Amino acid sequence: MSKVVLITGCSTGIGRDLAIRLSESGYAVVATARNPETLINLEAALKLPLDVTQTDSVRSAVECTLQLLGRINGLVNNAGYAIRGAIEETSERQVQEMFDTNVFGVMRLVRAVVPPMREQKAGCIINVSSIAGKRSTPANGAYSASKFALEALSDALRLELAPFGIKVVVIEPGSIRTHFMTTAIAHTPEQALSANSPYRMLYRQSELFAEGMQRHQSGPEAVSRVIQQVIETDKPKARYLVAIPLSGRLILYLGDSFWDYALRRMFPSSAVASHE
Ligand SMILES: NC(=O)c1ccc[n+]([C@@H]2O[C@H](COP(=O)([O-])OP(=O)(O)OC[C@H]3O[C@@H](n4cnc5c(N)ncnc54)[C@H](OP(=O)(O)O)[C@@H]3O)[C@@H](O)[C@H]2O)c1
Predict the structure, then answer these.
(1) Which CATH number is 245's domain given?
(2) Between vectors from CA 134 to CA 259 and to CA 252, what angle results, nearest 5°?
């Protein structure tokens, strides 16, 4: 019997690549997207509308999967996006909306799939976090906060669900070539686009930094390959860093002063702005 894996956010990027990979490997994939038209050309056992910010949408996708396929062996909480901007210039509404997807969306899915997984006495929940869930950088603080929150809730969940045979794993990708950056740019707060923004130099530096990162991006298959390995491992680790070069991994272990020093070198514009 093939394993049933439900994936959120399959319209593009990592979710779509994963849906294709797992379907080709014989899994019964439940590919979901908030706009089901984006799934038309995708091969999957089941294609369902699912907006992670809507409790009813989550419930009906899970119920429909159980009715038609009888079980859910794996859940991949992949749907998510970033907003860019200095904390001061990021609106409360934008941050709340992002948390509604990146954090509360995951909790909605967890509440819906854990009861059937507990009955099965087995299951695997994979939460797609980010390197930003380990370290926060200027103009990316709100997104980082959402991924830090996801890391924290995953750590608690891993221990809460272990007695029921349900595994919880966090995936922490570096920079991946998807629609992610385009969506992040589209979510840049209005104030940040103003020529009068006190952070304009930081934003310029941050754009240059992102452009530099884009030249070294991995494709989404780097992440979906690791997710497949996790699904197929009996004893997965708690978290997996993906597509992060050795230098990037080492920097994670720096103390705060060294980290700030490295960041000031990466984003010297914030210092320039303060001396104008
Ligand atoms: N790309 C990177 O560099 C990178 C690095 C680290 C972590 N990540 C994480 O990887 C995950 C996937 O991102 P990606 O890189 O594949 O970007 P992407 O191509 O922009 O895909 C994001 C997916 O999330 C979906 N989504 C957003 N809000 C949703 C909602 N309310 N309900 C259901 N689906 C929703 C999008 O659907 P629509 O098409 O409807 O918007 C899209 O399918 C995200 O959690 C992201 O934070 C990405």
Answers:
(1) 3.40.50.720
(2) 40
